[in-house]
Amino acid sequence: MFPLLQVGPFSIPSAPLFLLVGFWLGVIASERNAAFFQADGKQISDLLWLGLVAGVVGARLAYVVNHLQVFLIEPLAIFSLRPGMMDNGGGVLIGILAVLIYAQKQRLSFWQTLDAITPALLLLSIAGGFALLANGEWFGVATRQPWGIALWGEQRHPTPIYWIIAACLTTGVLYPRPRTHLLGLWRADVAGSHFLLWVYLKALGWMLIMPFVSVRSAVVAGLLQPMLWLVQTLCLWRLLGRAGGAKDDDGTVKNAPTPHNPNQG
Predict the structure, then answer these.
(1) Three-state DSSP string of the chain
(2) Is the Cβ–Cβ distance between 7 and 127 less than 8 Å?
(3) pLDDT tens across 205-216, in order?
(4) pTM
């Protein structure tokens, strides 16, 4: 669609730019709202930026390892700015590992930390939809609907736009904290409910969008729907279980204090 943005003499890849802006705004949102989830804003900000840097470096190193013979011939290519020279799976794993190590050293509460980073995940999800739209990826099956987009010689469902709409609706419900208790599934005194609700709504959005996505592998399509059902079931089970009483990270049930409202003196 528009993979490159022309800024004067420079051509900037659109998708990485959308993701970076979304991440940056997400870090700001999580840092400002961390106090509501009884988390330290500075620690949450450091955690997120560490995850990003470790993920980017890890993605490049994983790509180098997978194509080692090429880089032995041209070692300076390791520092290439080409975004395609990344192993996304390796980057995600290394980023998560770095975050877990940092969280353990700082003794961060598991569920409170997940709640505190949820605002960042909400905004990053919207940015991810714009990144898919910019690259012309993840488009849907052929359609005769008037809102279809011409792609690969056919009118197709604009599934990245569906993604953006679903992400915006989820953000409207959960950002910076839930507008409603959502049938009792969210409680301010139960750590983890904010993050689990985001996962649940994200999986629900995927289930609604997947029938319109052009999936080449029938096996992948057949496995993804049961996996999304499983994710939703586990989230509901965890939410309903935690709604019975707030739990510490060691599993002890207790009445958690009401989170501090940063808007109050």
Answers:
(1) CCCEEEECCEEEEHHHHHHHHHHHHHHHHHHHHHHHHCCCHHHHHHHHHHHHHHHHHHHHHHHHHHCHHHHHHCHHHHHCCCCCCCCHHHHHHHHHHHHHHHHHHCCCCHHHHHHHHHHHHHHHHHHHHHHHHHHCCCCECECCCCCCEEECCEEECCHHHHHHHHHHHHHHHHCCCCCCCCCCCCCCCCCCHHHHHHHHHHHHHHHHHHHHECCCCHHHHHHHHHHHHHHHHHHHHHHHHHCCCEECCCCCEECCCCCCCCCCC
(2) no
(3) 888 888 888 765
(4) 0.80
